[in-house]
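Bug #77: duplicate submission created two jobs. Keeping one. Sequence:
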Amino acid sequence: MTDLEKRVHLLLRAGGATVATAESLTGGRLAVALTDTPGASETFLGGVVTYATELKASLLSVDDQVIDQHGVVSPECAKAMASGVRALTGATFGVATTGVAGPTEQEGKPPGTVFVGIAGPGLVEAVALELSGKRQQVQDRAVREALEAFESVLRREETTLG
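Kept job's structure:
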């Protein structure tokens, strides 16, 4: 656990909010990071790892049109995944990761291309990242960047939540 995960947990708890994750390239690492904090059961509802495109559609209700027009490595897919896990779990916020960890490209996008989706009350946004390093480094960095982006949203929404 780092201070970042603890801050996210405290912000969620202060606002009486919950979070759920939808992960692709991070393979569950984001859920692990969020649950490493003592008391995480107060704020973390659960997560879904949808590595396969078909599962993004069937479990998270990512529209086929989003997949066909934009691909799964896209900000549109990240936003749809975040919204989908939020709807699936009833969480206040959904946070999603999708992208290319490597070693080869996917959908014509190079390794390190990552999108973080965040959905919450009145908000659906995506953050685009270009990360470098080997596969595991990209995955670990994507988790950190996702948590930083989520913390930023929570700080922005603090007055709404609290």
